[in-house]
Amino acid sequence: MKATYETDIVAWASQQAALLRSGQFSQLDIEHIADEVEDVGKSEQRELANRMAVLLAHLLKWQAQPERRGKSWQGTLREQRRMIERRVAKTPSLKASLADPEWLQDAWSDAKAKAFEETSIEDFPEACPWTMNEILDPDFQPD
How many domains does the chain have? Predict the structure, then answer.
């Protein structure tokens, strides 16, 4: 029985891969394959944006709550920076996002929301006060 994209995406994907490998191109579900290929890129972009928002939220909390600074927050800062670096190394085209002011503003908005949820502090800056070099610098911790 042939699985369809709508009924069983995992079985459908296996079938499409088999068709590709066997050269049966006329039987491929081209439209859905194109959708899935685009989604891979979007997934990578979402992953980078989420990691950046978590990093920025922790930098905000670090700055706003010096009395709560600790190894756990330092670990989160290190981990997010490492994962951002790894993501960009594996997908170099994502580096353009890091230089895009609109992308950074979106990540900043998400970060402020995360930081607010965890601290109830509302008066964070409207725009990110740090450069991308500072944000990604393993030694940078805002005062």
Answer: 1
Within a domain: 67: yes
Give all strands (DSSP E) within 16-115, no chain letters: none
The tokens for 70 are 């600790």
Residue 2 falls within a domain, yes or no? no
CA dihedral 11, 30, 25, 39 (to 10 degrees): -60
Helical packing angle, 9-21 and 30-64, nearest 10°? 120
Which domain CATH number covers 99?
A: 1.20.1220
pLDDT tens digits for range 20-63: 999 999 999 999 999 999 888 898 999 999 999 999 999 999 99
